[in-house]
Design a protein that fits this description.
180 residues; Phosphohistidine phosphatase; six-stranded mixed sheet; His_Pase_superF_clade-1; alpha/beta; 17% strand
């Protein structure tokens, strides 16, 4: 059994006049959400053998703040393929993961992460959490999936169980839509 934990970057600052999307930083709400999600992950005893992440500034900043809340830093493996990736590319990243990692935190972007959950978890009506992801995979949300595989190379659509899906607003209503 392998566990894949998807963590979308926190809310970025669209008011920052950066030249490239890749360089866009977090805003204050994003920083607060990343911290809350790190504290949540620690409280839920989520463990990661490996972190693989997009090297975009907003993901780097999200993970830095997340690990402050988590209370432990796990050095990420930065994989440029994750930046704005489609699901076929994300599957390639997953299949390339080392089998020594039983639980992996992948941090990146939408729509790729949302589509990855929808591809991995069967649409059989058995998971109300999947329906929540279908509505929206908000910034700084965490989806925990269990895959009944021994090797990451065996990852394929419709095999995962969505164990949990947590949005920042589930933990702090002030982090919900419309708040700053």
């Amino acid at each position: 059994m392998k566990r894949l934990i998807l963590f979308r970057h926190a809310k970025s600052d669209w008011d920052d006049p950066v030249a490239r999307d890749f360089d866009r930083p977090l805003n204050r709400r994003g920083e607060k959400a990343a911290l809350v999600m790190g504290e949540f992950a620690k409280a839920r005893d989520l463990h990661f053998d490996m972190v693989v992440a997009s090297p975009a500034v907003r993901v780097v900043e999200t993970l830095n703040v997340f690990f402050t809340g988590y209370g432990e830093v796990i050095d990420p493996h930065w994989d440029r393929r994750i930046y704005l990736a489609s699901t076929p590319t994300l599957f390639d990243v997953i299949r390339d993961l080392p089998d020594s990692a039983g639980s992996v935190l992948m941090s990146g972007h939408n729509p790729g992460l949302e589509e990855l959950v929808l591809d991995l978890v069967p649409d059989d009506g058995a998971s109300p959490l999947r329906e929540d992801v279908e509505v929206k995979f908000p910034t700084a949300s965490i989806a925990v999936m269990d895959l009944p595989i021994e090797h990451w190379s065996e990852a394929k659509p419709n095999i995962a169980t969505l164990a949990s899906f947590t949005r920042p607003r589930d933990l702090d209503p002030a982090l919900g839509p419309g708040s700053r």
